[in-house]
Task: inverse folding
């Protein structure tokens, strides 16, 4: 993929089921990825463990959306190995500016301690990356994100790949053909990332329990 890749080309790629990654932070080029097996989060199957439920109930955090999008992307890339290079971060900023990229943030004592960001098209949310600087912060972000997607009318939460961490929270792996069927259905639907209000911790837990 050339450096001239723009936001519209990127959205067309997501609509076809492929996504970009860089080989490393310092690599200038981006490459298209089309996994044979795709990770997804069934929105009615997010697993909240007892320890995570305790962290959510503690309510020592504030949930915000899209108040620090670029910072969330930067912190997601702030690790020894990352597939987010400078051109890709700039493309995410472009998508955010036109309303197709969003971040859900966890703030504690005035500090951004966890978050997740992704791309939206129709009723599909393409999860890109997440980070955490305090215990359970990224899990809390995912719990609130799943609730927001469910309440906002989304039908597909794409995680790209399945990791042991995501599997422990309820993510599963499906074949490419099934993924594309689900994607095509989601693209025919409307959803709104900003439709739902952030619920109180106990309301979130009750809602997730009823859906699971």
Result:
């Amino acid at each position: 993929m050339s450096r001239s890749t723009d936001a519209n080309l990127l959205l067309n790629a997501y609509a076809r089921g492929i996504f970009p990654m860089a080989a490393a932070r310092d690599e200038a080029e981006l490459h298209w990825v089309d996994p044979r097996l795709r990770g997804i989060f069934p929105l009615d199957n997010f697993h909240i463990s007892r320890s995570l439920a305790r962290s959510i109930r503690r309510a020592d955090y504030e949930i915000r959306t899209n108040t620090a999008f670029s910072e969330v992307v930067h912190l997601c890339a702030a690790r020894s190995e990352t597939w987010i290079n400078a051109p890709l971060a700039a493309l995410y900023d472009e998508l955010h500016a036109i309303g197709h990229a969003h971040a859900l943030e966890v703030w504690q004592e005035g500090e951004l301690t966890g978050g997740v960001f992704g791309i939206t098209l129709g009723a599909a949310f393409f999860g890109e990356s997440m980070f955490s600087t305090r215990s359970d912060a990224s899990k809390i972000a995912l719990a609130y994100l799943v609730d927001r997607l469910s309440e906002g009318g989304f039908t597909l939460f794409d995680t790209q790949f399945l990791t042991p961490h995501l599997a422990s929270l309820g993510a599963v792996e499906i074949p490419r053909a099934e993924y594309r069927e689900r994607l095509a259905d989601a693209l025919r639907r409307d959803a709104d990332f900003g439709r739902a209000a952030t619920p109180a911790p106990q309301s979130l837990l009750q809602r997730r329990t009823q859906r699971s």
